[in-house]
Give the backbone structure.
Amino acid sequence: MGAVYLTHDALLDRPVALKRAQRSESLDLLRFKREFRAIERLTHPNLVRLYELGADEGGLYYTMEAIEGEDLASYCRHGDPASRLAGVLPQLLDALAFLHAHGVVHCDLKPSNVLVRSSGALTLLDFGVLAELSTGASDRSIAGTPAYLAPERIRGAPATPATDLYSLGCTLFEIFAGRPPFLGSVTSVLAAHVSAKVPEADELGVTIPPDFDVLTRALMAKEPGDRPSLDRLRAGRARARGDVELVGREALKRRIAARLEEGARPLVLSGPSGVGKSTLLAWLAREAQRSGAIAFSSAL
């Protein structure tokens, strides 16, 4: 990550944050200026405002809005992580949806690139071409941070909106576990993203709420097409109203639906603690009610 400096723009008479690119001598300045101008025009309440891209004797730099806030992981740990995350996650999803709608993939989504102000307003940093400037990537390398890098990018595939969703899953995991999903050398971490299972919460001695655990694992599916869409995630904000949006269990949902169509019969749902059984049952009850059935539950 490049160093960030708080400075003053004398022309516009305002404080700005200045960030220098990593290994800027290897970058195509004309291409970056063109792409910077494109994303500079993107204005959204949850995106950092960009001001200037330039070069001096110190190399390539850009200036942006100076924001006082803390990174997403730190913010969520100042109380109940699930409650605090639920309060700001819709803003992050809105910012990503806006970028994707304009053809921009963030490419370096991680806790330190999401700032939350004391008011609760969330701001997303270092999106699109800025990820390359911040990590020193070139045409021969991959923009992004290894701990949050999607498997398809490691395999050499281009970035897509699903790439950001995998990084979002890694970010959610870190908020609850206090560490990224995979640790070790860069080589071992990249290999784990491609082939290793996401660690279980009980293996790490941490607690991840069942609904967020289900969501995190769905987002971290190895294949981009197996991850929930951003539209479904945004619709999941109904969860705050007592509704439940279940993601990442398509095959299981089809099996349950097929069993229910066979007629009234007992159906046993079992599994270890924390895998999302309660979330699945809540989804099942909701779907049954929509079909005109009477659904009830009892805590045992």
User: Anything to note?
Assistant: Residues 4-65 form a domain with the Phosphorylase Kinase; domain 1 fold (CATH 3.30.200.20). The beta strands are 4-9, 14-20, 50-56, 59-65, 70-71, 114-116, 122-124.
